[in-house]
Specification:
With 531 residues, this protein is an alpha+beta fold. The chain is 30% helix and 33% strand.
Length: 531
């Protein structure tokens, strides 16, 4: 007779497990003395039930662990993630972070530039120009001319000097000094004085009514701080994610679409978002509040650039306000019946297309699953016209290189194609990279540029007129040699301060300088011809 070694239940000689508690039966008979003392019936039943539950739990846990391992190592778990707005938000975040990675991959550590450039040029022709043809003189003049430029830019000043030489002799030189809140101008061939004035006085001179803006734009020329930029961009992304809610977002599975203008078909998960005008305004105002905060890094950084852009684009005073104010104005002007539609396509966990439609105008963005091709397009539903910018990056180049093709296609017209290949580890003093690029329009090459990785950092640019439009010119060559600069300093002469002069008085000074320009240039050219 065998007994259960766990609960003492009598067992048949051929029993493999105890029927009460599931314990494995001993192989040989066990005497009652060797078996554990029998428990009271009630205790024995509780123990038996507990053992059974423990066995079932262990089996279930084992199955779950095995299933989890299979799902994880095969990647099948991805198909179990629900296609909800959370998944879309994570995909948007991943896409933005990828773009930030690309932006900062080769970002310079400083924006300081201290460089010297020596620029020369030449004209190639088909031999059809005669001795007394006008183009013959232009060709001779260009070959005798040389431009020397010194750039000295850092966080404290932005200084520039340039000298135009002709036939080996200086023809005209100038210095532009910007430091300490004042701008200095010195052109010794036109005026022996070194003039300085405040930026406000210079802007008054440039404005039609002689009134400078209430607040001058302050541009931070230092490189973007990666950590601060990443943090605020993701915070702004969180704000704009408010355009999608459970009520205004429709999710469609297995939607057939075409990407790249119909060149590729795919089955996607589609997120169709229809925010109300109130939701659009709320998001814009929240973004403006974010960028307008005193501690907003991007608000200050981008605000200066925007102010300069707005002024250059001749916006009105209201439109050239700081960036947060401009965003708030967009919210105020957004019509109550405005209809914005956001269409996002996803394959798996990756966004492959985003299209924003407002007033029948579509701005879209597609990218390949291989991540080597991206296309940005602007589409007019009414006319069917489409303008595209397509970037195809090469993947068979070293990790330190950037190479590919950029194609511009306006309204389905003639393509402009730029092929490029640069070594991103080799920068010149002006920030360009060693490498080359070429530009083709309507299938014909119109420009090339080669930047040699030599001591002079030679930039060789060749421009070819389109066929039939050169009037005898077959090419224009520009060679720029770049070297480390020695800095640009203000003239040693005591400056003449024009800050307190009226705009009319300041204008008269520069008018007198310009009136002499023609004579100085003509004299230098005649001297170069030995006349």
């Amino acid at each position: 007779m065998k007994y259960c070694p766990n609960c003492g239940e009598p067992l048949e000689d051929d029993a493999l497990f105890c029927p009460e508690c599931g314990e494995k039966a001993p192989e040989a008979p066990v005497s009652p003395a060797a078996a554990p003392a029998a428990e009271p019936e009630e205790t024995k039943k509780k123990s038996s039930v507990g053992k059974k539950i423990g066995i079932i739990a262990a089996i279930v846990l084992g199955v779950l662990l095995a299933a989890a391992a299979v799902l994880y190592f095969t990647g099948a778990y991805r198909s179990l993630i629900p296609d909800g707005r959370m998944k879309l938000g994570l995909a948007e975040k991943a896409l933005v972070e990828k773009k930030l990675d690309e932006a900062f991959k080769y970002a310079p550590e400083t924006s300081d530039i201290n460089a010297s450039l020596e620029v020369t040029g030449s004209i190639e022709d088909d031999g059809s120009f005669g001795l007394f043809d006008e183009m013959t003189y232009y060709k001779m003049m260009l070959e005798k001319a040389k431009l020397a430029v010194d750039i000295d830019v850092n966080s404290e000043h932005r200084n520039l000097s340039a000298e135009l030489g002709y036939a080996g002799s200086p023809l005209l030189s100038a210095k532009l000094i910007n430091e300490g809140g004042k701008v200095g101008i010195y052109v010794p061939q036109l005026d022996s004085n070194y003039y300085i004035m405040t930026e406000e006085a210079l802007l008054k001179l440039a404005s039609e009514d002689g009134a400078a803006p209430a607040e001058l734009p302050e541009i931070d020329l230092t490189p973007f701080d990666e950590a601060k930029t990443r943090q605020e961009v993701l915070e702004l992304l969180e704000i704009f994610s408010g355009l999608s809610t459970g009520e205004n977002t429709e999710i469609k599975h297995d939607t057939p679409v075409t990407l790249f203008g119909g060149e590729r078909a795919a089955s996607v998960t589609e997120y169709l978002i229809n925010p109300t005008p109130e939701q659009v305004k709320a998001v814009l105002n929240a973004a403006a509040d974010k960028l307008g905060r005193e501690d907003s890094y991007l608000g200050k950084k981008l605000g200066g650039y925007y102010s300069v852009f707005a002024s250059a684009a001749a916006f009105t005073d209201d439109d050239s306000a700081a960036l947060p104010a401009a965003i708030r104005r967009l919210a105020e002007d957004y019509p109550e019946d405005g209809k914005l539609v956001i269409d996002v396509y996803m394959i798996g966990e990756e966004i492959v297309s985003q299209r924003f439609t407002y007033d029948d105008q579509t701005v879209g963005y597609d990218h390949e699953l291989t991540e080597s091709t991206e296309r940005t397009y602007f589409f007019d539903k009414e006319t069917g016209s489409i303008n595209t910018v397509e970037v195809v990056k090469k993947t068979d180049v070293p990790d330190t290189d950037e190479a590919g093709t950029v194609t511009f296609t306006p309204n389905g017209g003639e393509k402009t194609v730029i092929d490029y290949h640069f070594d991103m580890t080799k920068r010149t003093p002006i920030g360009s990279y060693a490498g080359n690029f070429s530009v083709k329009a309507a299938g014909s090459e119109i420009a090339t540029c080669v930047i040699d990785d030599d001591e002079a950092h030679t930039h060789t640019i060749r421009i070819v007129p389109p066929e039939g439009e050169g009037d005898g010119i077959t090419g224009i060559n520009v060679i720029a040699k770049v070297s480390e600069g020695g800095g640009v300093n203000a003239p040693s002469d005591a400056p003449v301060d024009l800050s307190d002069r009226s705009p009319e008085e300041i204008a008269e000074v520069f008018d007198n300088m310009l009136s002499q320009l023609g004579g100085v240039l003509l004299g230098g050219l005649l001297s170069g011809f030995g006349l």
